[in-house]
Amino acid sequence: MKFEAPPQWTTDFLHHGMFEDLNRLFNLHQFDKWPSLDWLNQHAVGIKNKNDKQITFVANDDIDWQHGYYEEIIYDKGDIPTRLENWHDLFGAFIWLLFPKTKALLNALHIEQINLHGRVERSKKRNAITLLDECGVIIVCDKTQATRLQNHGWVEGFFDNRDDWFESVWPFMFGHANYEMATRPYLGLTGKALYITAHHDELPSSLSEKYAWLDTTLEKLIEQQDILCDNSNLYPLPLLGVPTWYAQNTEKTFYENTEYFRPKRRKSK
């Protein structure tokens, strides 16, 4: 299907549970028009990239594109090119605000890969970085629950153990393209899950502290274990299957749609 985001500002999508965190943290329901760059930049005060530059959301038309490529501009100047009244870039800005350490690291890794391979050639590592950046979902849970979902045990993972979600299984949206497409959710909407094995008691109690903890944890994981050397640590996750993220997923029959909740492919011998 061809996806088209809403052409104008709206908050009609906020009833979908996957937007609950954004709404709670940024009070999106109070906006009757697009958040301004000034508003975004007020929230970005103190956020720096790995080149020690304060990040600033700058209108696309005000960017000196002769200075370099998108990631180079962010790294060299701290300016994040931002299209006005654009869902993709707005959600990208929110991810910078929620995951400043991880986003700064991913930007630096892009620069590392550009320096190694040039702007045009896409290395396996750079592809993995982009996949997480656009489509990533971070799932914090124990090893048993992670293995179940990695093996596409959708009915068991999503429905039979439904009560575990937001108690011992915590999903956090990272990919801003996921958010954009979820403004008009459709069967087929799938993210790429990165699983962090942790006991739920390790997470702080407040929502903002949870994101700060996850940002620090994710940064260390990527930096120290090189989990984005390729995309092997990113697993398909049907986003509408996450309990509370979609109103129609309360019945078991919803998860029996194998066109969406696909069984895991067996590796050919």
Automatic annotation (TrEMBL):
<keyword id="KW-0472">Membrane</keyword>
<dbReference type="Pfam" id="PF11227">
    <property type="entry name" value="DUF3025"/>
</dbReference>
<keyword id="KW-0812">Transmembrane</keyword>
<dbReference type="InterPro" id="IPR021390">
    <property type="entry name" value="DUF3025"/>
</dbReference>
<protein>
    <submittedName>
        <fullName>Transmembrane protein</fullName>
    </submittedName>
</protein>
